[in-house]
Write a structure and sequence with these properties.
Number of strands of chain A: 0
CATH architecture of chain A: Orthogonal Bundle
Number of strands of chain B: 0
Distance between the termini of chain B: 16 Å
Strand content of chain A: under 5%
Strand content of chain B: under 5%
Order of helices and strands of chain B: HHHHHHHHHHHH
Largest interface: A-B, 43 and 45 residues
Largest sheet of chain A: none
CATH superfamily of chain A: MetI-like
CATH class of one domain in chain B: Mainly Alpha
Number of helices of chain A: 9
Radius of gyration of chain A: 22 Å
CATH topology of chain A: MetI-like fold
Largest sheet of chain B: none
Oligomer: heterodimer
Amino acid sequence: MSRRWGLEAKIGAVLVAAVMALSVLSLVYTPHPVYEMVSGARDLAPSLTHPFGTDSFGRDQLSRIMVGGRYTILVALVTVFGSALIGSAIGLTIGYFSGALDTAVMRLVDALSAFPGILLALIFVAVLPASSLTIVIALLILFIPGFTRIMRSSMLTWRNLDFVNTALVMGAGHFRIITRHIFPNLLPVLLSALIIGLSNAILAEATLSFLGLGIQPPTPSWGRMLAEAQSHLFSAPWCAVAPGLMIILTVLGFHFLGEGIRKRYC
Amino acid sequence: MLFIVKRLLLSFVTLALVSLLTFAAFAILPGDPARVMLGQDASADQVAALRTQLGLDRPLPLRYLSWLGGFFGGDAGTSIKYDLPVNDMLADYIPVTLALAVLSLVLVVLIALPTALLAARFSGSWIDRLVSALATVGISTPGFFLGVLFVWLFGLTLRFFIAGRYVAWESDPTGFFAYLFWPALAIAIPCAGMAAKYLRDSITQQLESDYIRTAYSRGSSRGRALRVHALKNALVPALTMMGMIVADIFAGSIVIESVFSVPGIGRLLVSSITSRDFPMTQTLVMYIAVVVIVANTLVDVAIKALDSRVRLS
């Protein structure tokens, strides 16, 4: 707990704001039409007209990065907020009531955690039909156990405090106690977990798209762009460097911001 | 002894749940798996034949038990894509991934341990901040981007290795490890970032404790207090992280093997998912989960052996 925002929170906020701004800007403006393929402009090195160069189809890389960022961030936001909602509901409930249900759910959470993260997402990608909705469902389920664990353990530390017992004695219902008395205290923990979750979600989406199992073409995505760059790496290395750097900067931004929030409030 | 029995029991429960989850994910498919595998053009007879071949016409609990029995009994069914017994194929693929994983783990330790010690030795200084910044960048860098960069820089440009030309262990053991070094490094760097950060925090925490002050008062230098006293105690919590790192290494190899054309189970998993080869996918998922569970169990037992105060929570 500190009274001021640290340097990392500031760097994180700037990075996140920049990436967000670039993605939102792509709704109204891109330097070149995103899906336009110019046959005379293949594999062009970065220049003033194409700051990040062009790919082997003659598409402008910067425009594709801007639009790709939009989808990447949208997928990350939807999955992380969705899994935070479900995970919090489960975690708060089992933490508050504890007992047999708590033990059973935590066993399940432990079992789910035994799968290396990306493997769990891959299972759902394997069994569900290939579509962009599949990746949302896969990532949603991937992040639920983490939020369940965090919210449950935070609930346990607040559960038996005096003000909770007082509220109980004064006749407040369980639902009211959980949502009105305890939950507001857990918001900083949740917020920092949300932001760090976003950086994990962006990494996971990039990985799945890189493997060809995430966002489906022609919709641009950073992971997919990196995968496509592999086949003409020698002639156009910028096609790999640009999306790769964008992934790093975005993940780093959310990571720093999340850590900054944690140090400020938790 | 009681600790080990309890810990093994817990692993067994996790294993049972994991197998149930893996089985359930593939059993409760929306639609008919045989139909999904064969595509819309297949005739009803073909679908019926595949259903019988996969045993889909039997009740679910029976299917689960026979799958589980097959998995541990050495008969994990037949790959749809390659039309070969899954286990025969895995015998060729698993050693490659294990070699890659061990090499990655060695690199993680070689990178993380010295940097963490350096940061802890000069904690609070610019060196400490630099290590911390580098570690965070490492954590944020996807392994597959590092892999693509290595292929471009060290493979295509500097020609340290020939990109895409995997060297088999049988033909040239030295060349095998020389080739695997690059994918292993791509897997290791993000994990090493995490490990270095954790280990550094764990060491600096130890440096603030009473026994270190005693060591100083008895004339020990900061370097000696660090190496002889703090490191030993810091390694115990750091070991806990090893289980997580092993999981991350396997997750990393799923992607990196595709970048470097390494014929291991990671690349096999991705290709069997793409071609909807369910028996193969199911078995590979189970294998990776089992390795991670076993690694976590070993780590916990090792921690107990090092520090007898540890209790199962």
